[in-house]
Amino acid sequence: MNKILLWAGLSLCAVPQLALAQVQSISASDKKAGAEAHPQLVQQFGGAMKGPAADYVTRVGRKIAVQSGLSNSERDFTVTLLDSPVNNAFAIPGGYVYVTRGLLALMNDEAELASVLGHEVGHVAARHGAKRQQTATITQVLAGVIGAVAGNSGMGNLVGRGAGLGADLITKGFSRTQEYQADDLGVRYLSTAGYDPLASSDMLAILGAQESLEAGIAGRKSSLPSWASTHPNSADRVKRAQGKAQATGRAGKGNRSRDALLDAVDGLVWGDDPAKGFLEGQEFKLPSQRLAFTVPKGFAVNNADDAVTISASGSQASFSGGRIGMGGLDDYIGQVFSSLGGNSRPGDIRGGQASGVDFRYAFARANSNAGQLDVGVFAYRPDNGSTAYHFVTLTRAGQGIGPFEPLVESMRRMTAAEAQGVRPLKVKVLKVKPGETPDTFARMMAFPDSPLDRFLVLNALDRGAKLTPGQRVKVIVRN
């Protein structure tokens, strides 16, 4: 979520007229670029969710998007609920708007959802992305990140799968002025759509509280939430949004629709979905495949639909699987190299052993824009079945396996009991009964650390808050 305005010194009443005069309707080229980028973004953010919650997000998103002037038809907007635990939202030209289930679960009413989506549409209406990438289309931005690492070696297939780096360029990098402009436009859209415009400042406060909570639990200094990474999210920004809402004359008067939002998030998965694999400490577990491996410290993990990417500055690995033929792992390794493209030929195939799992591996040299790379493929066939799994590693030439030796040697089989015992965390909405307090619900939270603080932030409650019988609250439980 991101927002801002060049006319920050003007009153809100003047801002919309000036902003709307500059809005360009969705062009054919924007529609084409958006349609090309949409599948890639959906894939990199865990896939598109389906069902009542997704339908609800689409209805709210379309309602708020038409306030932008980009189109008068709700059908021109594609609003997607992404199956990702990351707190994120963004929009791209062509009428495409996105929010993750992680961010949705933090919200407490429909107006807050509308504020997030309105903010993102505001970025598009103000053409902030076009100003940031004057000559690049969305798909070129995605390809450019891949090319920076892999060059013309054909390794783009590897780096693009699951890396999510191109999406970062789409969803981050707005200036402070642009953030404020999108804030202002989002407040305007809330007001004209009949929502309480104070929802924008409320949502900013929720995000700030969530990040402070996460920072405190992790024992680190507070930084900006991933939803607003590199963007201002200070108390001053909250106050600024409150002032813009007051200037509309509708602060506190519009629709909030708390029950509709709570109905939508009830039963939503919280955090990583074990069915897709999840990170527990430094170990990444895939219960459905009964596999687990340890990620080196300092490396980021991105879990996309078709690959898990482990990356740090100067090196990257990608984990995925595929069918194995009659030729066994040696042929499988050759197939993986072929799928990566380029003219690189692997060297001798050798054997190794992880934590009780044998593997085969080979290296090749590839060219990139940043110089030559060592490319490794490490293949496993843990149960002698028809499926094999593999890492592809990228390091600077001469490094070979580099920092990934502990990674490839850590592959292990999960026991059947361990795999079956993994259950997802889910959001559960409950009604407060007489005599129940925040401490009552904190004891239900499926977290050993800071359960009360987690409950308060999840429900946008202050410490010492009193609950009212019949009030609906969210808790996170083990399903």
UniProtKB/TrEMBL annotation:
Domain LysM intervals: 428-475
Stretch forming the signal peptide: 1-21
InterPro entries (alphabetical): LysM, Mito/Outer_Membr_Metalloprot, Peptidase_M48
One record GO biological process: proteolysis involved in protein catabolic process
Polar residues composition bias: residue spans: 223-233
GO cellular component: membrane
Keywords: Hydrolase, Metal-binding, Metalloprotease, Protease, Signal, Zinc
Cofactor(s), by name: Zn(2+)
A single GO molecular function term of this UniProt record: metal ion binding
Keyword Metal-binding: yes
Positions of the UniProt region annotated as Disordered: 222-256
Keyword check for Aminoacyl-tRNA synthetase: no
UniProt-recorded name of the protein: Peptidase M48 Ste24p
